Amino acid sequence: MAHVVVLGAGLGGVAAAYDLRAALGKDHRVTVVGDGPYFNFTPSNPWIAVGWRKPEQIRVALDDPLGKHGIAFTPVPAQSIQASDKRLVLVDGGVIDYDYLVITSGPRLAFDEVTGLGPDGGFTQSICTGPHAEHAWEAYEAFLSHPGPMVVGAVQGASCYGPAYEFAMIVDADLRRRKLRHLVPLTFVTAEPYIGHMGLGGVGDSKGMLEAALRKRDIRWITNAKVTSIDAGMIRVDQLDDAGHVHRSHELPHSYAMFIPAFTGVPALRGVEGLTNPRGFVVIDKHQRNPTFPQIFAAGVCVAIPPVEVTPVPTGAPKTGFMIESMVGAIVENIKSAIDGRPAEAEATWNAVCLADMGDTGVAFVALPQMPPRNVVWIKEGKWVRLAKAAFEKYFLSKVRTGNTHPVIETYVLKLLGIRPLKGERSAK
C-alpha cells in the first residue's frame, strides 16, 4: 500500500487529492496537509476586499468532504521536508511519512522585499489570501469614510498580475456605485514593461484592450515600476527605461494601497539541496517530478518556471488555474504509473485560461500553451465574462464539496475549446 501525501489544500491540492483517490482506488492512502481547516477560493478574494462577497461564501471546511472520500486531512502546516527520509515534519512536531509527496503549497508572500509593503507591519493591503482579503475589506470600509488617493498594482518580481488589474477596476466600479469615485485619484503601478504584459509577453491584444479599459475608468498608470519604499502616506517609485536606468522617480500619496508582492517558496521547502531553486521554488522535470527526489512532484505557484523574457524590472511568469489543473493531471497519471511499476509518461500542456472581472464587464483570455510561441491566442471582453466567473466560482466550490473534480460538462466544454490538460490527448473535432 502506497501513501501519497499532498502538501497544500488550495486549488491544486484539493484537486490532486480527489484525483489521486479516484485513480488509485481504496488500496492506497491519500493524506492532505493544509494550513488551517478551510479551502478558500482564491480567485474571489478581490470581491471579498470590496464587500461583494462574504468570507463564508467562498470557503469550504475540508474535513468532512475529504473524509467522505477516504482522504485523511491534517490542518497543520509543514515545518520542513526531510526528503531523503521521505518524511514531512509539521509545525506542531507531528511527523508524516510518505511514499510519494505532491507539493501544492502555494507561495510565501515576500512583503519583506520592499520596505513598508504588506498588511502585517506595513502600509498596503493584499488580496493573496483569504485573511488578507478580509483585512483589505476592513481597511476599505474605513477608507470609504475618508476617501483620498488610491494606488493599486504589483511590485518588482511579482508573477500574478491579473488580480491587480481586477482589483483596480472592481474598486473603480464600487466607488462609482457609491458616488465617491470623484474623490479618489487612482493610479495603477506595475513592474510590467507595458500594460497587459501579464508576465506572459502579452496575450493577443491585451496591451490595447487593458490600456483602453484603464483610460475609460480614469486610472493613470506607471509601468517599468520599481517600488522603493512605502510609508503611511507616500509610495516611492522609480520608473525605469528600457535599458534599466531610472527614467523618472515618483512620489505617490495614498490613503489606501493594494499591491501584489513577489513570491518565494514557503519556508518548509527551503534548505533541501536539490529540491528548490534559490527562490525556494520546486525544480521539476517535464513530468512534474523533482529530478533529485523522484518521489516528489509539484504543481502550481510553488513550481520553478523561468520568466518568459528579460524585462527592465523583474517580472515572473504566472501559474493560472487551468495550468495548475493540467499539472495535477500529469502528476496523478505519473504517480499511478510509478505505483504500477511503469515509467512516467504524462506531461502537462501548461495551457492558460483566465476569467477576470473588471467591475462592470470582464476579460477572458486563452493562451495555448501559456509560454510563447503559442498555437492559440485569443482575448475577449464582455459582461458575459463576469457572469462566467461567478458561475465558475459556485461550480468549483461545488466540486470541492462533492469531490467531483472533472464533471462531464467541464470536460466537454474544454474539448470544444480545443483545450487539453495533458500532452498527447486528442482534441475534439
UniProtKB/TrEMBL annotation:
Top EC category: oxidoreductase
Domain of life (superkingdom): Bacteria
Cofactor section: FAD
EC code: 1.8.5.-
Domain FAD/NAD(P)-binding: 3-303
UniProt keywords, alphabetically: FAD, Flavoprotein, Oxidoreductase
GO molecular function, one term: oxidoreductase activity
Name assigned to this protein: Sulfide:quinone oxidoreductase
